[in-house]
Amino acid sequence: MTAAPESGPRTYGNWRRARGFGIGSLSSTQTYALFGAIVVPLAASYSSLRAGLLVAPGSVLVLAAVLVRVGGSSLTDVVGRRVRFSRARSAGWTELSGGLLTDHPRGEDLPGPMAPMVPLSTDDGRGGRQGMLWDRRTGRLTVVIRVSPVGLDLADRAQADGWVAGFGGFLADLGYQPMVRHVAITVDTAPSGGTTLRDYVAGRLDPAAPAAARAVLAELVDATPATSADVDTRVSVNFDPARANPRPTDLVSAVAEVTRWLPGLEASLAATGVAVLGRATVEWLIGWLRVAYDPASRGDVARVLDQHPGHPPRHTVRPVGLGYAGPRYASAGGADELLAWRDASPLRASETWDRWWHDSGVSVSWALAEAPRQAVLSRVLIPLLAPGAFPRRVTLFYEPYPAEAAAAEVEREISNNSVRSAFTRRTRRDETQRERDDQARALQTAREEAEGAGVGRFTLYVTTTIAGRRTEASSTSWAYRTCSLRGCSS
Questions:
Q1: Which residue in 40, 300, 329, 454 is a FRET match for 396, CA 20 to 30 A apart?
Q2: Which pTM value belongs to this model?
Q3: Tens-digit pLDDT profile for residues 248-288
Q4: Which backbone phi and psi does 4 adopt, to 5 degrees?
Q5: CA distance 73 to 80
């Protein structure tokens, strides 16, 4: 972190991508491959010129795969992604059908990497219930903590700086909690269209209220569809019970161990400028997944969550009646149909190279390729997090290094920089300004780690969803129908 003079705003930076001892922009693996492609033909030519000529074409292909760049990525990465996608499409992994006729043996599995996930409803240690997502393949447990950011509009600069410092302390403390594998902070925004607000006001309007008050509220509700938006912020914490000491022997013990660590995490979040609303219940998790896969159901899911027996308004968390490995409702009706785990998965999904079609929407995702090189202000993400014309999810994914491994990691990066600098001097090549800045940042990271700062890897994902349906026109062709706020077009 770099601080400007007291008269100016405080800026933040010093993000640095972990690098091996690779030459230039090459990784360690690519550097090994480069040297191998050069050394192997030379060694073969010493024994026989013919052997060297036979090996040379393969070396040329390796050099091309490592050195040729396509859109900033190596040819190996580009071809590898294409091969994996082609293999997945030929195997039928890019298509999902959850209707009456399906060849999937487990109809309640989520698509893709989330297939092993199942919901658990457990005691939260405070007399209530909490929801967890259990990965049956790895044994990890994920808890979603619902929070509400205070916001920067009415906060002074000193208070905002204090919140950022508190967030840094929260991330640093994760290195001392061995069970925490990663943390995902998600801000979900979507235009409400006025429906959610209209339902909210209609359900709380006193029939005995004066006519003038009712008329004013009606005018306000009519004026808000174009300006209102739903904003939800959550912190998903992924725990690995195998890292606990002593290690839990069964799932019940693992859940109890995770529940024991949650109050400390919630207390740490309170210093980061957010109000902790509580832990998500299984109904809320199912509703959130249903809305993500079927954006058209947002209003219905919100209405059911507000009206479900035993479920509180969406801004608080209270006990709900759920079963162990899935929801069990005492009443029948719309809540059972909308909030059952079998309906959390999309009915139909299709993956293409640059987008994902699912139920009533089509989504496109972007991932952070490189953090800003310059220092930024504390409000740098506000334009990205603000509500827009379409639903958008922004997730900051952070994986902390354990405190005992952080020092070795930063020292390894300094050693790798020294190796690259030595190679530059040996080859009598001028050191670039970016290489000098990278060395300075590595040294600053080591100093800050020695003073107690946390070290971790992070990235940013942005997903935008628009209304659209991919319908099967015939057995051999597809018809696309995309809908926007102004209508639909095929």
A1: 300
A2: 0.74
A3: 989 999 999 999 999 999 999 988 889 999 999 888 998 88
A4: -85, 170
A5: 11
